Backbone:
């Protein structure tokens, strides 16, 4: 049995293989996370901070804490520690180009005929992605507020959802927002903290909510586009394939799924989700020819 030790305050805290396996089992059961043994040092590094914050001296005690029903907030701290919320405005801009050029024109036509339009940012992190979607929508459909157009933005972490709702970011983050968009929907705050704020016009289109992607979803769609980027990388292949299928089931025929740069749609969903660009997929009306899975 191997152990990884590091300094926590003034003492070393043992982290046995059985400790790691128990944490990995909990992360998979509760959140669908797949933690390979090679992640053990990273898990130790990140969770040792939680032990310090909770004044706990060992991982067995922390595991007991996590099993308590009233410690749901600590389980969320766990997933926050084990995942990385790295994002930026218009990250992987080819997705937003496809949204504007291929998806939104058809959405605009349907909305003008009284039809609903829904876009989902699944795993929205600190909110840059849904605000970029909202900018793209208002740029393509200026009258969106007068029509039945909404953006759903979800994440499992309540703290990150609160940050997303606030819509305030370091001023340097504005550099990746097109200038024409900055002029319309971004303001520089003058409170001495050098922050930018997203406009209310953007916020009015977005509903933020907490959601665990591997749990039941409290909605049935359908969605015209779903963004789920750099989330499935934390899941094993079986969980990924189930997620792709659930997304596919909620997309309208012709709807789009945008995923992360290191992710690929595999499994049964690949019969209906056709690759139409870099990590961009469109739902077809009928299954395609057999594809490798």
Residues:
């Amino acid at each position: 049995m191997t152990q990884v030790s590091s300094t926590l305050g003034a003492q070393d805290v043992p982290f046995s293989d059985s400790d790691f396996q128990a944490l990995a089992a909990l992360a998979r059961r509760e959140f669908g996370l797949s933690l390979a043994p090679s992640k053990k040092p990273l898990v130790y590094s990140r969770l040792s901070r939680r032990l310090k914050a909770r004044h706990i001296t060992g991982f067995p005690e922390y595991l007991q804490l996590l099993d308590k029903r009233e410690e749901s907030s600590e389980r969320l701290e766990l997933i926050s520690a084990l995942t990385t919320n790295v994002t930026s405005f218009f990250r992987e801009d080819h997705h937003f180009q496809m949204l504007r050029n291929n998806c939104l024109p058809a959405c605009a036509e349907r909305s003008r005929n009284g039809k609903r339009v829904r876009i989902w940012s699944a795993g929205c992190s600190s909110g840059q992605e849904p605000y970029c979607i909202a900018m793209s929508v208002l740029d393509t459909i200026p009258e969106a507020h007068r029509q039945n157009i909404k953006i759903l933005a979800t994440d499992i972490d309540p703290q990150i959802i609160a940050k997303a709702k606030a819509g305030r970011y370091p001023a340097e983050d504005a550099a990746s927002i097109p200038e024409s968009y900055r002029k319309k929907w971004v303001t520089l705050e003058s409170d001495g903290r050098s922050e930018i704020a997203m406009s209310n016009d953007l916020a009015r289109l977005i509903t933020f909510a907490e959601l665990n992607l591997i749990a039941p979803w409290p909605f049935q769609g359908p969605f015209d586009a779903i963004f789920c980027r750099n989330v499935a990388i934390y899941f094993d292949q079986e969980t990924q394939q189930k997620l792709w299928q659930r997304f596919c089931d909620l997309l309208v025929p012709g709807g789009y799924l945008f995923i992360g740069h290191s992710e690929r749609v595999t499994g049964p969903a690949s019969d209906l989700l056709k690759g139409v660009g870099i990590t961009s997929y469109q739902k077809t009306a009928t299954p395609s020819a057999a594809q490798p899975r």
